[in-house]
Amino acid sequence: MQKILIVEDEKAISGVLHSILSDELTEYEFVIAEDGLEGYKQIEKEDFALVISDIKMPKLSGTELLKQSMMLKPESTFIMISGHADIDSAVSCLKEGAYDFISKPIDINRLITSVKNALAKESLKKENKNLQTENKTLKRKVNKKYQMIGDSPALKKIQDMIEKVAVSDARVLITGPNGAGKELVAHAIHNQSERARGPMIEVNCAAIPSELIESELFGHVKGSFTGAIKDKQGKFEQANGGTIFLDEIGDMSLIAQAKVLRALQESKVSPVGSDKEIKVDVRVIAATNKNMQKEIEEGKFREDLYHRLSVIEIYVPPLDDRKEDIKLLVDHFSGMIADEHGTAVKKFDDKAIEALKVLSWTGNIRELRNVVERLIILGGNSVSEEDVASFVRK
Which residues carry this modification: 4-aspartylphosphate (predicted)? Predict the structure, then answer.
């Protein structure tokens, strides 16, 4: 049961306060302190949902109790009471962090209203704190899956960019070769943003036939085309309140590009076969392995859509440009693969790591992960330089 502390040197007043408030707030337990020093000792021992304190008291004044308590427990909620009320006292208490100031003789209705409002505010603060804790826990769990491994200058530059752009809702275009980690960057932005509690919906634009991409993105109504046997919600609507990740955006048809442009301009989508417009609140992150300027020059990609998508552009370099990260990546993949297979982690000796660094990684991090798994399966008790020479063909 939560507790309320009454700090008052006049027993008659503390008795009245206790009697009235305990009838109104049956779910709380009340503790009474007869002076400021005793009140401070109580606050040191335990947390109170609310402290109601007189100002003029022996040993330690209410003003000093407020100051010292706020230094000890900044989340404390105080209502101050005084028979010597004046504007300066009220302002001073409020500046020190008191929730309210009530003068004697006490207006009981005003006191009850103030106490209930203060407790409601305290409850809301705790709820927000719990939500923040849950949010951080969620981010840690998700971040482990989409962890970015390495300490190269190139990766640190990307991580700095992510930290800066995540706090905004600016659209981001991620460029770089296949397998370099563009998806990880997209997830990192989402996970570090205020939208982390919302959905992140991924769309591989290259994997969806051009005639179906509009339906996938915006949904359709029953009967709108052959095979549309029921209404379908589109990816933009599914991502409402969160993030949509348009991977391989450079492979999207010009017709679909026009529809996406309209959705970005108006924050609305229309399902195929419907005149209805659906309002969506979505952050858009896109990725491509193509040279977008070349695509624009060849008429394959709309320049206006490119500028809408690339408010922020993040380039993810190939693994060949950050080979100093290979050892950390190998260690990471070794642990991950051991967990998947239910086996002990297999060590790669230093010469094996150096042999991997000499190679060219056209498939980037995705290729390295596959090679690590192959070497763990086919190599000896620890992976050697000879294992790399035997089982990695370049």
Answer: 54
CATH of domain 320-391: 1.10.8.60
Give me the sign of the Cα torsion angle 305, 252, 290, 264: positive
Q: What does R_g of the chain's alpha carbons equal in angstroms?
A: 31
Evaluate whether 55 touches 62 at the Cβ level (below 8 Å): yes
What class has domain 153-317? alpha beta
For residue 282, the one-letter residue type is V
Residue ranges of domains in the chain: 3-127, 153-317, 320-391
Single pTM value for the model: 0.64
| DSSP letters spanning 265-324 | HHSEE--BT----EE---EEEEEESS-HHHHHHTTSS-HHHHHHH-SEEEE---GGG-GG
Burial 218-237 (b: 16+ CB within 10 A, else e): bbbbeebeeebeeebebbbb
pLDDT tens for the chain, 394 residues: list them: 889 999 999 999 999 999 999 999 989 999 999 999 999 999 999 999 999 999 888 889 999 999 999 989 888 899 998 876 566 777 788 888 899 988 888 888 989 999 999 998 877 777 666 666 565 555 544 445 678 899 999 999 999 999 999 999 999 999 999 999 999 999 999 999 999 999 999 999 988 887 888 899 999 999 888 888 899 999 999 999 999 999 999 999 898 899 899 999 999 999 989 888 999 999 999 999 999 999 999 999 999 999 999 999 999 999 999 999 999 999 999 999 998 888 899 999 999 999 999 999 999 999 999 999 999 999 988 999 999 999 997 6
- Fold match flag (3-127 vs 320-391): no
Whether domain 3-127 has CATH 3.40.50.2300: the reply is yes
Residue 7: which H helix or E strand, with range? strand 3-7
Which residues, in sequence order, are bridge partners of residue 288?
A: 175
Backbone angles phi, psi at 173, to 5 degrees: -110, 120
Q: Which amino acid is at 306?
A: Y
